[in-house]
Amino acid sequence: MKKFIAVLFALSVAFLMSGCTASYQGDFLRPQVAMQPQTRILIVTPENGQYGDEEYLTSGDDVTKALAKEMESYSKQISVIPTTVKIEDIREEDLQNNDYVFIPQILHWEDRATGWSFRPDRIKVNFNIYNSNRDLVNSYLITGRSAYIVWISRQPNSLLKKPIRDMLKMFFNGK
User: Fold this and answer.
1) Which residue has the higher pLDDT, 97 or 21?
2) Residues in a beta bridge with 123
């Protein structure tokens, strides 16, 4: 009986520990070449994310803020377009004043009140990266899932920091 309780306890701890961590994935579309730090960056605010009929009204701004904040480690020249714009519609002047344009697109944004529902928050965001000639340089897709068991409920935007940091590290360091 003691052995059974010990095994049950070990399995419970393993389940809780695996449910207490968020998971992330991210991949560049093309092989990565290191970019120079201190380049001039333009970030376009994406449309807000949705899940079913619910639109998350600050999710586009959340992605932009998270990207700009992590980008500060690599460049002090960061500009933001506060509305959703396609690469073809960006003014020529804005393109000439920047080396790269990051255009995020929220593909999935799911806030599931994980603290009491035990259903994880999920995000999926694609970052298209263009040069000043409107050429697609690369594309990076991140997916994130919160833990199943959390002690403090957070918003899906808390899933952005680590994968964006990893993306920028690879983008600027070529690793």
Assistant:
1) 97
2) 109, 144
**Cα dist. 117→11, 49, 151 in Å?**
22, 21, 12
Mean pLDDT of the chain: 80
3-state secondary structure the chain: CHHHHHHHHHHHHHHHHHHCCCEEEEEECCCCCCCCCCCCEEEECCCCCEECCEECCCHHHHHHHHHHHHHCCCCCCEEEECCCCCHHHCCHHHHHCCCEEEEEEEEEEECCCHHHHCCCCEEEEEEEEEECCCCEEEEEEEEEECCCCCCCCCCHHHHCHHHHHHHHHHHHHCC
Question: Cβ neighbours of residue 135 under 8 Å, at least 6 residues apart?
Answer: none
18-61 tens-digit pLDDT: 444 565 566 666 656 566 777 899 999 999 998 888 888 999 99
What's the pLDDT score for residue 7?
Answer: 53
What pTM was estimated for this model as a whole? 0.79
**Which tokens in the block code for residue 131?**
């040069």
Query: What domains appear along the chain, each with residue ranges and CATH number?
Result: 22-173 (3.40.50.10610)
